Amino acid sequence: MKLFTYLATASLFLVVSIANFPAKAASAVDLASEAKCRHLARDGVDIDNLAYWRNALTACEAYLQAEPSAIDARYFTLASRFNLQQFEPALAGFEELAAQGHAPSMDYLAKASAHGLGRERDFKVALAGLRKARESNDPRSADYLGEMYMLGWGVAQDFVMARS
User: Fold this and answer.
1) By the 8 A CB rule, do 129 and 113 touch?
2) Contact 133, 110 (CB under 8 A)
3) Between the CA of residue 91 and those of 25, 57, 87, what are the distances in Å?
4) Tell me: the pLDDT tens digits for 36-72?
5) Of 129, 132, 134, 101, residue with least CA distance to 114
6) How many whole angstroms separate alpha carbon 64 and alpha carbon 129?
7) Distance (Å, rounded) from C-alpha 111 to C-alpha 107?
8) Which of 5, 52, 131, 155 has its CA 20 to 30 A from that of 110?
9) CB distance 75 to 64 below 8 Å
10) Would you list the DSSP string of 61-130?
């Protein structure tokens, strides 16, 4: 009898939980596209395989369609476009996110300026963007700043500053 009462209570709780679940909740397909997008387009992925980035872009576009207001969905979609060398739309989107204070977008803009990807090579612009991102305690910007000091890009080569 106790088992029956326990199961009935658990079932009732489950029914109430499902009934009170927000109507805007993502479907299983949306969650799968978000997870796949986050996995494929995550920061620090260094893959030169265009098929890989096409798969990432497809997953991230599905995530963005399901969650159009999610900054991560937009950011990962832009990162996939950037890695597919679709620089113009990616950089325009990163500019918008960076204007809102999104530090990882600032990192991509700095990378584009430092390497001349989709824009003129300009170390001063790259350094300014990285310093601004670093003010937000963005760890990736610290790595890029260190590289610029190590290589002497736009600054005097300084191994002590590179290490710090």
Assistant:
1) yes
2) yes
3) 31, 15, 6
4) 887 777 666 666 778 888 898 999 999 999 999 999 9
5) 129
6) 26
7) 6
8) 52
9) no
10) HHHHHH-TT-HHHHHHHHHHHHHTT-HHHHHHHHHHHHHTT-HHHHHHHHHHHHHTSSS---HHHHHHHH
How far apart (Å, rounded) are the C-alpha atoms in residues 157 and 116? 20
Look at the block and give the residue holding tokens 């710090």.
Answer: 164
- Residue 79 has which token pair? 């990162």
Looking at residue 41, the DSSP 8-state letter turns out to be S
99-130 residue pLDDT tens: 999 999 999 999 999 999 999 999 999 989 98
Residue length, the chain?
A: 164
* Token pair belonging to 118: 């989709």
Amino acid, single-letter form, for residue 160: V
Q: In 3-state terms, what secondary structure has residue 157?
A: coil
What amino acid occupies position 145? L
Phi and psi dihedrals of 102, rounded to 5? -80, 100
Please state the pTM of the whole predicted model: 0.73
Angle, helices 139-151 vs 103-115, to 10°: value is 20
